């Protein structure tokens, strides 16, 4: 669902915050379930056939249930390919995909198998549309710190040129960043991966302050930083990039509506932000929709939206030749 506004529609776009398992549309989830002869829970979808959830923790449960249909490297290829193709149709030139080895393992798929499937999807989408993409391997907070270390070790043991980042999602409020310091040290120091982490979404500024003690280059969400003026100044001074997901924040009730969302205030305070869809089919959004929302609800004009894309490309977890090519596409 895209709000059609000419400025947003015409711009090259980039996305840094997208959960791959959460990118599978209800239609694709049903197709994958049929592929594997699986019966989906009756309450997984609402009367319109969309994902049905009522709270953030319920959303996580629905997300996990839907993700069980992604079982093979072919499945991961299809989720990746279909999402990137849809993004390219909206003008996206670059997308980073946060993948979960834990969801793959729960389905009986090896770490290498799930990476191979994603890589195939990236390569197929690039060949067809020209879109570029990279993989951020993520651990899941509520599976515990020890499992986070195991995931980081897997990333270090099985390097791939398209796996360029390490991150963490899940239940932010119950599992603070400090518990995962060892996992991030392994990913950053031993695996050589750039890092991001979810913070300042379900929990407040204290979560962002704690995240900044990890070797992270970007903060996923980070919007509740606005509650602490000192933190906002720190983010601006450091040049730390926030991966902001406005529609997601409204859907999960971090904010009641776009008027209450601090995107504009963060920009005016000098914080670097990007636009992202997070788990698009769960929140009835797309990357194109997020750019249109920024234009319509936050007053970002074409120059400001172009700068958002530039910020994303400058903060992307890519090698410098690739970054230069992407920036050239933006400027052309």
Task: Give a topology summary.
Layout: H1 6-10, E1 13-15, H2 26-35, H3 56-67, H4 73-89, E2 92-99, H5 101-106, H6 111-129, E3 132-140, H7 145-157, E4 163-169, H8 181-190, E5 194-199, H9 205-211, E6 218-221, H10 229-238, E7 241-244, H11 246-251, H12 263-268, E8 272-275, H13 280-283, H14 287-298, H15 302-315, H16 320-331
Task: Walk me through this protein's architecture.
It is built from 16 helices and eight strands. The chain is globular and about 50 Å long. Helix content is 49%, strand content 14%. α15 (302-315) runs antiparallel to α16. The protein has an eight-stranded parallel beta sheet, with helices on both faces. The chain has helices at residues 6-10, 26-35, 56-67, 73-89, 101-106, 111-129, 145-157, 181-190, 205-211, 229-238, 246-251, 263-268, 280-283, 287-298, 302-315, 320-331, and strands at residues 13-15, 92-99, 132-140, 163-169, 194-199, 218-221, 241-244, 272-275. α7 (145-157) links the parallel β3 and β4. The protein has a single domain (22-331), classed as Metal-dependent hydrolases (TIM Barrel, Alpha-Beta Barrel). With 332 residues, the chain is α/β, with parallel strands linked by helices.
């Amino acid at each position: 669902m895209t709000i059609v506004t000419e400025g947003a529609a015409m711009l090259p776009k980039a996305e840094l915050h997208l959960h791959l398992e959460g990118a599978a549309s209800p239609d694709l989830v049903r197709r994958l379930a049929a592929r594997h002869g699986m019966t989906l829970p009756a309450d997984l979808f609402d009367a319109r056939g969309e994902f049905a959830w009522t709270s953030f923790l319920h959303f996580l449960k629905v997300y996990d249930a839907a993700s069980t249909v992604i079982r093979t490297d072919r499945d991961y290829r299809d989720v990746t390919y279909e999402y990137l193709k849809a993004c390219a149709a909206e003008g996206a030139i670059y997308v980073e995909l946060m993948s979960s080895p834990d969801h793959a393992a729960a389905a009986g798929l090896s770490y290498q198998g799930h990476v191979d499937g994603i890589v195939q999807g990236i390569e197929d989408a690039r060949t067809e549309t020209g879109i570029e993409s990279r993989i951020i391997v993520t651990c899941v907070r509520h599976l515990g710190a020890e499992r986070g270390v195991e995931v980081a070790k897997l990333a270090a043991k099985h390097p791939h040129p398209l796996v360029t980042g390490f991150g963490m999602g899940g239940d932010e409020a119950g599992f603070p960043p400090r518990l995962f310091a060892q996992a991030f040290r392994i990913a950053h120091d031993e695996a050589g991966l750039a890092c991001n982490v979810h913070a300042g979404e379900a929990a407040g500024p204290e979560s962002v302050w704690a995240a900044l003690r990890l070797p992270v280059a970007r903060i996923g969400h980070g919007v509740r930083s606005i509650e602490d003026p000192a933190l906002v100044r720190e983010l601006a001074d450091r040049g730390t990039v926030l991966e902001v997901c406005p529609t997601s924040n409204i859907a999960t009730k971090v904010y009641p509506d776009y008027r209450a969302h601090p995107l504009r205030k963060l920009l005016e305070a000098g914080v670097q932000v990007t636009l992202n869809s997070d788990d698009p089919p769960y929140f009835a959004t797309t990357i194109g929709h997020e750019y249109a929302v920024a234009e319509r609800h936050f007053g970002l004009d074409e120059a400001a939206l172009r700068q958002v894309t530039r910020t994303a490309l400058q903060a992307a977890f890519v090698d410098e030749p690739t970054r230069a090519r992407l920036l050239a596409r933006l400027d052309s």
